[in-house]
Design a protein that fits this description.
Keywords: TPR repeat
Organism: Brachyspira catarrhinii
Protein name: Tetratricopeptide repeat protein
InterPro entries: TPR-like_helical_dom_sf, TPR_rpt
Largest sheet: none
Shape: globular
Number of helices: 48
Structural class: mainly alpha
Number of strands: 0
């Protein structure tokens, strides 16, 4: 069977199980069960407004009407300033916290908005719109508890079960079925249609279409008999939409059953009966295309898919099906391009990543699909096929425990899985044998390997070690006999043939053997040469030979061997493909070992042999991204405001197939006070199906929002199910808190990054000796990471060792002039401790060029000018003060509202101080 047909069978099998878009199947997880009862929430009855006299009420209303007008005119900062002024007199009035919180929300300042809205919920108020806005806010930032509290409070104010229904819907979003059941049951007990609607939503979640439609119909009858806040028209419109959706999903479920049993006419008839719904449900048209594809009408399917994608860009299955057709046409390049395009719009759909990785694996690539799978495997419960391929990658990296853990969770392909698990055991033993071989412990090798017998390729390596050990211990005859037996049985690897030939040549050159034996050995040598020349009829042995070179990172030897094959006129197309693959592996090895220039050069050679070597292309893109990020500066260790979203978008354009790039874009957006970052994360959360991962992602996004308590507790919840990066957890502790610090596990086995995290936490608690010890351990583990050297400098600075700190900062800058944090700290030390204004000026200007949007660089520049003027060592004092004034004013303009509020006050004081000096 041709490779193309094999790929099509594999891909069709994959597509058959692919149903995220057409049937909306995806598994959710429940890693939280709040179960907040209605009676658990109490309502405040203290109404500040009604206690005022009429005159005071009028004054108050006029003042806050002015705030509302500012908000309506998008003057949010002015509205916040006015609210701050009013807070002294009206701190007990709810509208202050609502308007200010809303203004903060519109500026994207989630932290201060959250503070005001939480304060608001402790007060009495009677405005339905406010409950909706506040509920939506907490829901959007995934604060499950306060979303429920908001809706339950509203229910207690209005006695309207609509709010209990919203609480139930919120529980469904988090797959907290127990809580949802409780809320919907409350609605049913009151004879309200929301209960029927809620249970219908649960039915639909479980694909119980008949029950769902029955409950929706009951809800419709109920809505016609009462009025609610949301009113009949809105309720019935929403319900009609849900009934249509349930009807379509039921029929699509039936269609899928007919399609799987290849009853194409019946499947098409079902879709024709749904045609009136197709404008509102594009998945009907996609189902029709899939039907044609199953029937083998590739050209029609291809045309329809291109038209469908141009209108509906976020349907992941459409891209997967089109890629399948391109593969059928033997157009691998277009298949990969369309999947990469699909991931730009369907970045949150796990199946599209899986389909892409599966296709790349089957096409013979390694780096690209491994990188894709490595980023989704901890987010989603991926397919067994991709788990197996990724496990092989982990084994090649000697991450045996992780590979074994992954394989043990696979339920299908047990024969394959068991074989790979055996291979892990073999490789652990062979790694030990390699270590003994390097040290010359041949007797130990014999004891280790003689008691075991392996299978396949590993058995050939075992025999090779044993034969070589016999030779090294003086038993060349025994070594030759072992290898000769394999050779005679035609069950020998190329490496063992080469070893056999070398041992025969040694015996021929010895004086201890008769001429007749030497003649026999010489004939055997010639036989091995003829055998190797005949390899063009057995490409598997060639692949095995090259794989053995790759296994031990002997890429130059592999390429030299390929050159010999070229001379021998083997199948040149096959050899070129193999050569390109080897170059791709070589580039990966160099990249992993930070030899970026050479990796780029080798990837270019791979692409020259095969312009569509996507491993090499991916490595080249990765190097480009790394160089690009390095050129725009390193900001990891400072709290400066850096506009990163443009940088992340550029990275996303270069490498669209990595979900990490989209997550980092979301983090950059919320760091820039752009709520769109939460929209990205919420889209990804829809398809998460591993316990703990939802909170892991939320921990990252909360940290960038300044919601450090939210971040810390999100990481704590995640840690109940999965491993959470220690550095992330440490970053979520904004100030020293013994309770939070004690919850971290300090005793587990550490990597360099963990020691780096520990050093940061020790700095927070002023334990500088342990901080130094930890960061030095990190440097021992990873000597090339400049962030660790920077941290060592920072710790020394905190200890008062300014000269040592400066040495570390300047070491970092020497190796990476774009390390913004090191430039900033070096400028401070030169200014405040060594009074070297020239070097302080140079470093702060470097910092400003790297971080032009941050106030702190301009503030420091202003301080340099001011100190120079006050030192009286220069004649142009007035000009220096004026330069300081300009710098401080720039700093004030750059200071971010909310986050830099206190800094802004200090800068304004400095500005006034300098103005006074200029006037004098």
């Amino acid at each position: 069977m041709t490779m193309r047909r094999i790929l099509i069978i594999i891909f069709i099998t994959y597509i058959s199980a692919y149903s995220n878009d057409i049937l909306h199947y995806y598994s959710k997880v429940n890693d939280r069960n709040l179960n907040i009862g209605i009676d658990a929430i109490s309502v405040q009855t203290n109404d500040f407004f009604n206690k005022l006299d009429e005159s005071s009420k009028l004054v108050l209303m006029n003042k806050f009407e002015e705030v509302k007008q500012l908000i309506n005119n998008f003057k949010f900062f002015e509205a916040i300033t006015l609210c701050n002024e009013l807070e002294t007199s009206y701190k007990d009035y709810y509208i202050l916290y609502y308007l200010r919180g809303f203004a903060y929300y519109r500026t994207g300042d989630i932290y201060y908005s959250m503070l005001d809205f939480k304060k608001l919920l402790t007060m009495y108020f009677d405005e339905r719109e406010i409950y909706e806005v506040v509920g939506n806010f907490f829901d959007n930032i995934n604060d499950y508890e306060f979303t429920l509290r908001t809706y339950i409070l509203a229910y207690k104010i209005y006695n309207d079960y609509y709010w209990i229904f919203l609480a139930g819907k919120t529980s469904l979003k988090y797959n907290d079925i127990k809580s949802a059941n409780n809320y919907f049951t409350q609605c049913l007990k009151a004879g309200i249609g929301y209960g029927f609607e809620g249970f219908a939503d649960i039915n639909l979640l479980h694909n119980q279409y008949a029950d769902a439609l029955n409950n929706y119909n009951n809800a419709q009858m109920s809505y016609s008999s009462y009025n609610s806040y949301s009113n009949n028209r809105i309720d019935i419109e929403r319900l009609n939409s849900k009934i249509s959706n349930a009807t379509v999903q039921r029929e699509l479920y039936n269609w899928n059953s007919k399609l799987e049993s290849r009853e194409f006419e019946e499947a098409t008839n079902i879709l024709n009966n749904l045609s009136s719904y197709s404008n509102n449900f594009p998945e009907i048209n996609l189902a029709l295309i899939k039907t044609y594809l199953k029937m083998g009408n590739y050209q029609l399917s291809k045309n329809m898919l291109n038209q469908f994608i141009s209108v509906n860009k976020n349907f992941d299955e459409a891209y997967a099906m089109l890629a399948q057709i391109y593969l059928y046409e033997n157009n691998e390049k277009s298949a990969i391009e369309i999947l990469e395009k699909g991931l730009e719009y369907s970045y949150n759909k796990p199946r599209l990543y899986e389909t892409f990785a599966n296709m790349l694996y089957n096409a013979g690539y390694s780096f690209y699909p491994n990188k894709i799978v490595s980023q989704i495997i901890d987010l989603y419960d991926i397919s067994d096929e991709n788990k197996i391929e990724y496990a092989k990658y982990l084994i090649s990296k000697k991450e045996y425990f992780k590979a074994r853990e992954l394989l043990n969770g696979i339920r299908s392909y047990r024969a394959t899985v068991n074989s790979i698990l055996d291979s892990i055991g073999y490789n652990i033993i062979l790694d030990k044998a390699e270590e003994l071989n390097r040290d010359g412990y041949y007797v130990d090798i014999m004891e280790l390997l003689s008691a075991n017998k392996f299978n396949g390729y590993e058995e050939q390596i075992r025999i090779g070690y044993i034969a070589n050990s016999y030779y090294r211990l003086g038993s060349i005859d025994r070594a030759i006999n072992i290898l000769k037996e394999l050779y005679d049985n035609d069950s020998i690897s190329i490496n063992n043939v080469v070893l056999l030939r070398e041992l025969l040549k040694i015996r021929i050159s010895s004086n201890n053997y008769s001429q007749s034996q030497k003649d026999i050995d010489f004939a055997d040598v010639q036989s091995t040469i003829f055998w190797e020349d005949d390899l063009k009829n057995n490409t598997k042995l060639i692949t095995d030979k090259i794989y053995e070179f790759i296994k031990y990172n002997q890429y130059d030897e592999a390429l030299a061997y390929i050159e010999q094959l070229k001379i021998k006129n083997y199948d040149i197309d096959y050899i070129k493909k193999i050569e390109s693959i080897v170059y791709g592996y070589y580039a990966t090895f160099l990249y992993d070992n930070r030899q970026f220039d050479k990796a780029k050069s080798i990837s270019n050679l791979a692409i020259r042999r095969n312009k569509d070597n996507y491993d090499a292309i991916a490595i080249k893109n990765q190097i480009y991204v790394d160089v690009y990020l390095n050129s725009v500066g390193n900001f990891n260790n400072i709290n400066a405001y850096v506009k990163l979203s443009d940088i992340r978008r550029e990275v996303l354009n270069i490498s669209p197939a990595y979900i990490d790039n989209m997550i980092k874009l979301a983090e950059a957006l919320v760091y820039e006070y752009n709520i769109e970052g939460y929209n990205i994360i919420n889209n990804i959360l829809k398809y998460i199906d591993i316990n703990g991962v939802r909170d892991l992602l939320l921990g990252k996004i909360y940290n960038k929002s300044g919601l450090y308590d939210y971040s810390f507790w999100a990481y704590n919840r995640a840690a109940q199910y999965i491993d959470v990066d220690l550095l992330d957890r440490v970053e979520s502790i904004s100030i020293a808190d013994n309770n939070k610090i004690s919850s971290l596990n300090f005793n587990q086995k550490r990597k360099a990054r963990d020691y780096y995290a520990l050093s940061k936490i020790y700095v927070k608690i002023n334990n500088y000796n342990e901080a130094i010890n930890s960061i030095q351990r990190a440097i021992l583990e990873d000597n090339l990471n400049l962030d660790y050297r920077y941290q060592l400098g920072y710790i020394n600075e905190q200890m008062g060792n300014m000269r040592e700190a400066l040495e570390f900062y300047e070491y970092v800058i020497k190796n990476n002039k774009n390390h913004a944090a090191a430039n900033y700290r070096a400028a401070i030390i030169y200014l405040e401790y060594f009074r070297n204004y020239n070097l302080a000026y140079d470093y702060v200007m470097n910092y400003i060029s790297l971080v032009p949007d941050d106030y702190s660089g301009y503030e420091l520049l202003g301080k340099i000018y001011k100190n120079r003027a006050e030192s009286l060592i220069e004649n142009n004092t007035e000009n220096l003060f004026r330069n300081a004034l300009v710098s401080y004013k720039t700093a004030s303009d750059k200071a971010i509202w909310g986050k830099d509020k206190e800094a802004k006050k200090n800068i304004e004081m400095e500005i006034q101080n300098i103005l006074n000096k200029i006037l004098k």
